[in-house]
Write a structure and sequence with these properties.
alpha+beta, 96 residues, four-stranded antiparallel beta sheet, 3 helices
Length: 96
Amino acid sequence: MYGLIGQILCVEGKRSELATILLNGIADMPGCISYIIAEDKTEENALWVSEVWTDETHHKASINLPSVQAAIKLGRPLITGFGERFETCPIGGKGL
């Protein structure tokens, strides 16, 4: 398995809008086991994205999916940068 946890920084006051765009862009992603969007509890203009994929190849291929491309197009103007990013190798747990 392949995991990725990353922080997305957004335009002030646009966090909910960006979260909605991201959530709408995750339909039908082959190899995606889990894709969680969470609000940062200490930074009001930040989201965390936690992903689990069957493998890194599926994760990399997802960038070419129409739904992901549409989310990128809509979301890009709301993103001011990226915070921390961690690649992981999930080994199990509830929901996997």
